[in-house]
Write a structure and sequence with these properties.
It comes from Microcystis aeruginosa NIES-298. The chain has helices spanning about 1-10, 15-25, 35-50, 55-70, 80; strands at about 75, 90, 95-100. With about 100 residues, it is mainly alpha-helical. The chain has two domains: about 1-30, no CATH class; about 30-100, Rossmann fold, CATH 3.40.50. It starts with a helix and ends with a strand.
């Protein structure tokens, strides 16, 4: 989600990183939140809380958005997202694909 990327560069305090991110985002299509994101969010959160393995609220929203659009989530944070059933993950830093069971 663009908001997470923007937060990261703003938090860094680097105007160079802010400019680089904005240039990158010009070439990407940033998808709006779909109406089914809230349903996925609720189901994922219920499952993870019952399992005693919750994830952060922003990661939960990112996972729900990916599931709602049936897209693969590209992240280096696979450890957090591996807890979400049915979520497809790719870590471009290690060049592998993980598809979790639903």
């Amino acid at each position: 989600m663009a908001c997470e990327l923007r937060f990261g560069v703003v938090k860094s305090g680097s105007s160079r990183l802010v400019q680089q991110l904005e240039r990158i985002l010009e070439f990407l299509t940033v998808l709006p939140l779909e109406s089914t994101v809230d349903k996925h969010y609720a189901l994922i959160r219920k499952h993870l809380e019952q399992a005693g393995t919750p994830i952060g609220p922003n990661d939960l929203l990112i996972a729900a958005h990916s599931l709602a659009l049936d897209l693969t989530l590209v992240t280096a944070n696979t450890r957090e997202f591996e807890r979400v059933p049915g979520l497809k993950l790719e870590n471009w830093l290690i060049d592998s694909v993980i598809i979790l069971g639903g």
